[in-house]
Amino acid sequence: MSQANVPKDVKERIKASYDVIASKYNEWTVKHSPLRQEYTAKVFEFLSASGSSQQPRFLELGCGAGLPITQKLLSCPEAHVIANDISTTQIGLARNTLLGAAEENAGNSGRLTLIEGDMTKLSFTDQSFDAVFAFYSLIHLPRTEQTEMVGKIARWLKPGGYLVANFADSDTEAVVMDKWLDKNDWMFWSSWGRDETLKIIEEAGIKVVVGDVRKDEVNSSFLWVVGKR
What's the rounded Cα separation, in Å, for the pair 17 and 189? Predict the structure, then answer.
């Protein structure tokens, strides 16, 4: 792992890497599931306590193969979920898993929209979502784009809506690994650090309700945030 400049083709390289390592990544990231599920449950509790919409709209940025979070969001009765990922392979896996022919998934087809591509290119009407979920995904954006993305999310959230996401807790413009989980993959991460990230979220109009620095199951330290619009 090394600090470096932000490559001009960073998005293309991230997409290519996740396309190659999708299956291996999905096995490896199971270790991260408990924390993601814990913070998703927090948002469900907050929405329930506030008497939010009976037909909530959720956006997930970086859905991967859809397990476990997209599936968890769909477990909320009457919820409509828009799930985005940059990887063609991951979106294909999510489609097979969540929109497959299995009887238990038959009701998902009308409530799930899968969108492949760069999250920064997404466009939605203001106040479209009750909650936006972004686990281990915003950290792959160059940090100037992270700031812009938080601003977009703030506009997309309904009043009283929630952002739940995690960020690296260190101040690092660009970290690159030429080999991450596989000899053929390359990966990039970026972060403003804890204090600046919390400031960016607040300045976007999202009040930080939870801001925890915690180590996950693979001993990596992240800032976990739940914010309310």
Answer: 13
The rounded distance, in Å, linking the Cα atoms of 6 and 24 is: 25
Say if residues 90 and 16 touch (Cβ distance below 8 Å).
no
Q: Where does the chain show beta strands of DSSP type E? A: 2-3, 57-61, 80-85, 112-116, 129-134, 157-168, 171-177, 187-192, 207-215, 221-228
CA distance 91 to 116: 6
pLDDT at 101: 41
Q: Are 191 and 221 spatial neighbours (Cβ–Cβ below 8 Å)? A: no
CA-atom Rg of the chain in angstroms: 17
Give pLDDT, residue 103: 40
- For residue 107, name the pLDDT band (cuts at 50, 70, 90): low
The whole-angstrom separation of Cα 61 and Cα 83 is: 6
Q: 56 φ, ψ to 5°?
A: -65, 150
Residue 153's H or E segment, with its range, is: helix 143-156
**Reported confidence tier of residue 208, pLDDT bands at 50, 70, 90:** very high
Residue type, 105: N
**201 vs 89: CA distance, rounded Å:** 31
Range(s) of the domain holding residue 98: 2-228
Confidence check: pLDDT of 6 > 60: yes
**Burial class of residue 85, CB neighbours in 10 A (0-12, 13-18, 19+):** buried
Q: How many domains does the chain have?
A: 1
List the CATH number of the domain containing 47: 3.40.50.150
